[in-house]
Amino acid sequence: MASGSSDPNFMKNFQIPNYLLVAETTVNNHELGTNDPLTCPVLVFINSKSGGQLGGDLFKTYRTLLNEKQVFDLGEEAPDKVLSRVYANLENHKSKNDQLAARTMEKLRLIVAGGDGTAGWLLGVVCDLKLSHPPPIATVPLGTGNNLPFAFGWGKKNPGTDECSVKTFLDQVLKAKEMKIDNWHILMRMKVPKHGACDPIAPLELPHSLHAFHRVSEADELNVEGYHTFRGGFWNYFSMGMDAQVSYAFHSERKMNPEKFKNQLVNQTTYAKLVSKQGWFFASLVQGVSRNIALLAKVKIMKTRDQWEDLEIPPSIRSIICLNLPSFSGGLNPWGTPNTRKQCDRDLTPPFVDDGLLEIVGFRNAWHGLVLLAPKGHGTRLAQARRIRFEFHRGAAEETFMRIDGEPWKQPLPVDDDTVVVEISHHGQVNMLATHDCKSRSILDPMSPRHNDAADDGDSDEENSTSEEYRKFGAADTFKIPDEVDISHLS
């Protein structure tokens, strides 16, 4: 069989027989044919509300090309229910020595079309379900930033939705390689309010991937009486400060006027205008010192087992990013690649996506962020760590802004002697699919550079190194999105 998407038999590579998808379906003899290649069976999950009309158009095209039972609208059915049902059916047929079911489980790949929030939702579900053969995932960029697709070579521009474009994408899925990606758990703890709602704490509107777990077991050491515990996860980044504030303003406007945000270029232009409007180009004059990260939080990191160390934050830093992928704010790489001297002097490494380390980068203002547009531009490299802890006490401000994988929120800070704690730690891995244009690097790949002798002229003298530990948190339903959530806000 020819490998190109123009081959009339091309789509057979991806199709799954009906009886393997739906329980109690009558098995047709031709579906059991041993000659079927079953090279790359796929399940496709599409956020039909992403990308304006694109999500809906893409859904129709995939349903035309594939068995319609392979293609799911995330607005109609959650991925955890779909995968649980399909895998239960596959396991049932496999137990009856059905070789087609066994090959489907072995070769299965997932496609998710939507924004970074949608992609992160599916990644989290696959991680949480503990499937016997966790399938690797390809991402179709239908959002505004599209950092996840860009990091693994799937591009960042919204794709075409016609049959030719979809077949071209499927051809890439067929040829893609598998790559591990770290999963990061985030825990946030704050005091139960004396007045107002408790779940979530009013007026706190948390991201969909961060939930209240105040009913955790009394034996859980993370459960502290009188406090709310929130848990969630992310794949790309956690950030705090000016970038999260701009993102919050953007999402707030889109929520109020969704009809104005149906075009990727318009969205990006609006985002740029908000950066200027918020005053981040002249942060020292407009924002004042109350937004400086060093005044808002005490930051600790852990790189060696059971040993916390204070991370010194330069006083001018107003945004801090804990980054897993080399793609932020639409494909920019805040960490870059440290040169040999930096690696030796400060024990820094290139940013691998599967090394159990987060890169911690700081920015002073929007002008500092523009340095990322230069070939070797990067932010202020603060440290690499396996675990990070932010402690907020009463002080400079009543609130700050936080963001995980594109989802921002306004975080109230203590008004008395209470402490708000945000802690990040490693929590397993999941398989991604990567094209030949993949920007991410694996520590297991012998072709990934460990050293780079290129000049590093953009480094700041403010950069300081620190180190610390490793520990995993188990968090049930970490990434589950409630039924009442409008998933259009994930795009």
Description:
Belongs to the eukaryotic diacylglycerol kinase family. Its EC number is 2.7.1.107. GO terms for molecular function: ATP binding; ATP-dependent diacylglycerol kinase activity. Monomer. The protein has 491 residues and is an alpha+beta fold. The protein has 13 helices and 17 strands. A hairpin with a 5-residue loop joins strand 9 and strand 10. The longest helix has 16 residues. The two termini are 37 Å apart.
SS-derived structural category: alpha+beta
- What's the order of the H and E elements? HEHEHHEHEHHEEEEHHHHEEEHEHEEEEE
Strand content: 15-25%
Low-confidence stretches: 279-283, 451-485
Mean pLDDT across every amino acid position: 77
Largest sheet: 7 strands, antiparallel
Supply the number of helical segments: 13
Distance between the termini: 37 Å
How much helicity do the residues have? 10-25%
Rounded to an integer in angstroms, the radius of gyration calculated over CA atoms is: 23 Å
Total beta strands: 17
Main sheet: strand order: 6-7-5-17-14-9-10
Overall 3D shape: globular
